[in-house]
Design a protein that fits this description.
This protein has 3 helices and 34 strands. The strands form 9 sheets. It has a 5-stranded mixed sheet, with no helix packed on it. Strands 11-17-16-13-14 form a 5-stranded mixed sheet, with no helix packed on it. Strand 33 and strand 34 form a beta hairpin. The longest helix is centred in the C-terminal third of the chain and has 25 residues.
């Protein structure tokens, strides 16, 4: 026990000593009191010692009267707590046999409870500026208090944005900027009882960002299958829920859709603060390859004197991607849908045509045709009517036979 002592003596009256356990000032629990009284003059001698806590008697002691130098003592405990910062009154009274009275009082300060910290707020996650109201109360005296706030920005940067202490602490605070606010309040009363309270408030006024969906707007594809994870397509610094719809119906990630026609894909994201973002894209599923149309030429046909080849595709977004004639690639402009070329040179022509549409559906056609000289096909009568000599006719006929045999031979090789 650490004793705090107080002694008084008035004109030969009894003297009193009070010892209080603990330190001077405020106490967190009950206080032990020890009192002594005696007659310093050893005249009539000490008669009685009385103690009171408030208006209630606490402890007393009485002398036998046999020894003028006798010392009286008493011990008691003060358990009553202080209120409103006021001490509990302890009164000590000593009397000698001559009727002299000495009175001594002390104030004992006891506070068993910690300060109460209250933080009023509407929501911990909000899409608008957030206001908090701070109240710190105590049954007695708040000796110290502190308010500290750290903000973590959406980009992850963390820094202290507020620090207040003592009487500078304001009751109302408004947090406007997006971010996570880590609020910590601490307080201590005069007896050393401590309290602290923490709160995290998130201000999120920004809608979630949805990626990749708009890239599909107006596209042609052969099938649809959305394989992106939610965390890959949606960004927000709070928790987000995601809903995906295909043509207004719930869509399960990774499920393939192949029905031809126009479709609408929608992604709706809602963050923890209630901000909603919606992205949608209309696209076309096309599984039908382009149709290649070839005019004036048919496979394995022979054309006398030449022909004008025509190649075309007519569907929306279809184009001729490659044309090879006897292994030589023809030059095509981007997006070409029509190709024409006149053939007059006798010979065999092997042609390959390739086409593609916007959905990457592909088509290919292979055609072989032949061109022979017109002069080689005159009849015998034509030659004779024109005054031709028989030996000329024989030469021409030989040329025709040679061409026909060449064509037949090539057909046989092909088969």
């Amino acid at each position: 026990m650490s004793d705090n002592k107080e002694i008084t003596a008035v004109n030969g009256a009894p003297e009193i000593l009070i010892s209080v356990s603990g330190n001077e000032g405020w106490h967190q629990d009950s206080v032990n009191i020890h009192v002594e009284a005696w007659d310093p003059s050893q005249g009539s001698g000490i008669s009685s010692l009385l103690s009171f806590v408030g208006e209630l008697p606490a402890a007393q002691a009485r002398s036998t009267g046999d020894d003028p130098g006798e010392r009286l003592s008493a011990d008691f405990i003060v358990e009553r707590a202080s209120t409103d910062g006021k001490g509990v009154s302890v009164l000590i009274q000593a009397m000698d046999y001559a009727g002299n009275v000495t009175t001594l009082s002390r104030q004992i300060y006891i506070d068993r409870t910690s300060p109460v910290i209250e933080i009023e707020h509407e929501r911990e996650i909000t899409a608008s500026p957030s206001k908090i109201t701070v109240r710190i109360t105590d049954d007695n005296i708040v000796a110290s208090k502190e308010l500290a706030v750290w903000r973590t920005a959406p980009d992850g940067e963390r820094k202290q944005v507020l620090l207040e202490s003592g009487e500078d602490i304001r009751s109302d605070h408004l947090f406007k900027d997006d971010g996570e606010y880590d609020i910590h309040i601490s307080a201590a009363d005069a007896a050393g009882n401590c309290s602290d309270k923490s709160l995290v408030i998130t201000v999120d006024k920004t809608k979630p960002v949805i990626r990749y969906v708009r890239q599909m707007e107006g596209t042609y594809i052969s099938n649809f299958q959305w394989n992106y994870r939610e965390e890959d397509i949606i960004s927000d610094f709070t928790e987000v829920t995601c809903e995906m719809l295909l043509d207004g119906n719930k869509y399960e990630q990774g499920k393939a859709a192949e029905e031809e026609g126009c479709h609408v894909f929608t992604v709706r994201a809602t963050d923890a603060a209630g901000n909603v973002s919606v992205e949608e894209a209309a696209f076309i599923i096309d599984r039908t390859p382009p149709e290649i149309l070839i005019s004036n030429v048919r496979d394995n046909e022979t054309y006398i004197g030449g022909t004008e080849l025509g190649i075309s595709v007519g569907g929306k977004g279809e184009k001729l991607s490659n044309i090879y004639i006897n292994g030589k690639k023809m030059k095509l402009e981007t997006g070409t849908q029509i190709f024409r070329q006149h053939f007059t040179e006798p010979g065999e022509y092997r042609m390959r045509v390739e086409a593609v549409d916007l959905a990457e559906n592909k088509c290919r056609k292979d055609v072989i045709f032949y061109v022979v000289q017109e002069e080689a096909c005159y009849s015998v009568q034509d030659i004779l009517e024109k005054g031709g000599r028989p030996e000329v006719f024989i030469v021409i006929l030989t040329i025709i036979v040679t061409i026909v045999l060449t064509i037949v031979r090539r057909k046989c090789i092909k088969t």
